[in-house]
Amino acid sequence: MQTLLIVSHPDIIESGSQQYFLNSIKQHSNITIHHLEHLYPDGKIDVAKEQDLLKQHERIIFQFPFYWYSATPFIKKWQDEVLGEGFGYGTKRQPLAGKEFGLVMMIGVAEREYQAGGEELFSISELTKPFQAMANKLGMVYLRPLPVFQFFYMEEEEKMNNLIKYWQLLTMDKDISLATREKWLIEQLEQIVNPDEAFSPLTFAIERIQANRDKIDELKMVLDDMFLK
Prior knowledge:
One of its GO terms (molecular function) is NAD(P)H dehydrogenase (quinone) activity. By secondary structure, the chain is α/β, with parallel strands linked by helices.
């Protein structure tokens, strides 16, 4: 699966949260990082190029700071121009139908405030309904969004937990079965194992996961055989 990560941030170099997440995927061959402000400093979007990129990827993710309960102005401009008539609507063909769409949002307010009775009053799910509607209009599958709340107040463990969720959103199949999660985790671990080490905790973890999966598969075969007789 190829993922197109469309990033918008007016000053991305100075954004610690953006750098933290983006630096973790720079070497990933199945992810295309597409920073709009960097590519189009004059604001003139190459619409045909953007539409071709969308066609070439199976999963499309918007990543942006959550400004005034929505995306950045450049994301809105991109939507207006790239998803215009003849591509996003007004045609029987739906070039993005069946593709997956998701959001990664950096949010400066605490999560507890995004609910009835909280300072922000509405939930993230409610505030992102325009994106849900966009995905529906395009025939896309809307994925569970990843809101990252108050990154700079996080402990390292919480940052890592969010990073794993980030990797999952960008690279893991939508199927959330245990087998899928195990397969995905093994693939991620294999990418960071040092091949020069004769033994490492990561190698041991991979072997244990695979061994447990074999046992589960054997048990499933036995149960299937019992109930099919």
